[in-house]
Amino acid sequence: MVVKMRDEYEINRLNPRKNPYSNRLKKQITININTDAVDYFKSLSEKTGIPYQTLINMYLIDCAENRRELKMVWE
Fold first, then answer.
1. How far apart (Å, rounded) are the C-alpha atoms in residues 50 and 63?
2. Whole-angstrom Cα distance, residue 19 to residue 17?
3. Other CB atoms within 10 Å distance of the CB of residue 56
4. Is residue 38 part of a domain?
5. Phi, psi (deg, nearest 5) at residue 31
6. 4 belongs to a structural domain
7. Is 54 inside any structural domain?
8. What is the rounded distance in angstroms from the CA atom of residue 42 to the CA atom of residue 40?
9. I want to staple 63 with a disulfide (CB 3.0 to 4.6 A). Which of 27, 35, 40, 68 is the partner?
10. Would residue 8 count as lying in a domain?
11. Structure pTM?
């Protein structure tokens, strides 16, 4: 049996719901991260089973949501 696609669709009727993940969209960027930091998250990844890039993203989200400020001491 061959099913033909319609020439036109009413897009609004196909999926009238708003995307529930639209506020969680990610943006691909290029960033230079210290090798020690990457190695740290890779070791956490092996322990937790969560990909290291996801762990880095989770950490950055936590910092942003809790408005953490960097505290540096120069000696």
1. 19
2. 6
3. 19
4. yes
5. -145, 140
6. no
7. yes
8. 5
9. 68
10. no
11. 0.64
